[in-house]
Fold this sequence. Notes:
Number of strands: 14
Number of helices: 11
CATH superfamily of the largest domain: Periplasmic binding protein-like II
Strand order of the largest sheet: 4-3-5-14-6
Radius of gyration: 22 Å
CATH architecture of the largest domain: 3-Layer(aba) Sandwich
Oligomer: single chain
Number of domains: 3
CATH class of the largest domain: Alpha Beta
Distance between the termini: 40 Å
Shape: globular
Mean pLDDT: 81
Structural class: alpha/beta
Order of helices and strands: HHHEEHEHEHHEEEHEEEEHEHEEH
Low-confidence stretches: 1-11
Amino acid sequence: MMSMFNRESAYLHISIQELRIFEMLMRTGSVRLVANNLNISQTTCNRAIASLEEKLGVNLFLRQKSEYKLTIKAMQLYEPILSLLKYDHQKNINGKQSARNVTFYFPIAGSYLAAKYLIPMLVKEFDELQAELITFTVSFLYSFPTYAPFVIDCMDFVFLNDEYSYMINSNIWKPLCQIPLTQKIYCSNRYLASVGAVKTPADLSQHKCLSLNVNAIEYWQFLDKNDQLYEVAIKPSMTIDSEALQAHAVDAGLGIARLTEGLIKGDQRADIIEILPDYRLPDFSSTLYVNRAYQDNEIIDKVVRFLSTAM
């Protein structure tokens, strides 16, 4: 059975059965158990995994005789695939779309905005809202650029930084509102006490900097008081693909990071301080999108009309 994730513009054609086999093999590590549980042959299981790996262009498992050992790529895929299977199961058992949960997709880097502001506001406004907040790491978006849109397209609402807008299919998604975000450079008092002050952006190249992205070299941009642009090459000392976890790492004195101002103010972290106040990072924004199929769902239609006026 082909999945609802297939669409004409997609590069991949992934079946629900392939996803089920992958998810069960992740849990059991045994092709024999998967075959018995799904009432299919072991050959079918092996072919499904090989097909999935070919479509995604990655090795998901290391074969060791009759056992399958997980790779890092498989672990990165597990939560997104589990969410897709839950979504498919929910649609099948509920029948009416209006009876299902309303799904919100937030990359982990921005999930605190949803947890602190958006979801509480909606729950307070709509007693009947059954919301499901789904978050994936930044590394998932980077590691699976052709597969990530499949996951995204199965949600009702998506909140993405504009740098990921290339994943948005305008035939499927309608922008609801744009939220400007401000990032600043932060570190902890204990870090400064151990390494000394940071006076200019150029000094950062000599410090431990934390990154969201798995890149050998990053380029951080700054604007001075005269709006002159500076670009500094940074070699990250640590990659943490969650902004909230980065804040914890900074609080622990592990280095310097670019963090969203609202995250730091909202958590009121006493030991985290802003550095380089005479320079600012270029502003960026995130956009909240709604799936254009929302007209078929009464509660989503209400949420869309509410958000259109409240934000």
